[in-house]
């Protein structure tokens, strides 16, 4: 019975460690963090962001999918600083990613309010749209460091429980002298 319990405990601990150590973006697969449907001229498009909110000094992906997958679009996005944000316009060309999807990787160096200005060109003419985003500052420390610090007391508790278990077994195995 003890062997079965130890096996289940070991498997449970292994599963927990895998879950904790797997990055959250890998667990989320390819689902976008944010999705917005807007009109850019005569084109109805869905704009997907890989991070919501995006963080400074961390590149994130902007994907643009037209509702009509048969049209071939081209264009660019311009990251425009919003009011109160000290920055300059950051233009980036959109590249084809298949199925009519356009994609760009953007790097924003300043936190604050920004607008993603989308400029598209296609068979129905040109179109423009804008989406507001707020770029945040990255965390003070990486998540794995925070988890290591936060979980460190568990090692001490496990050692204490193990020591108490050994002490109790030693007491029970020692004969009592009268």
From TrEMBL:
<keyword id="KW-0812">Transmembrane</keyword>
<keyword id="KW-0732">Signal</keyword>
<feature type="transmembrane region" description="Helical">
    <location>
        <begin position="144"/>
        <end position="162"/>
    </location>
</feature>
<keyword id="KW-1133">Transmembrane helix</keyword>
<keyword id="KW-0472">Membrane</keyword>
<feature type="signal peptide">
    <location>
        <begin position="1"/>
        <end position="28"/>
    </location>
</feature>
<protein>
    <recommendedName>
        <fullName>YtkA-like domain-containing protein</fullName>
    </recommendedName>
</protein>
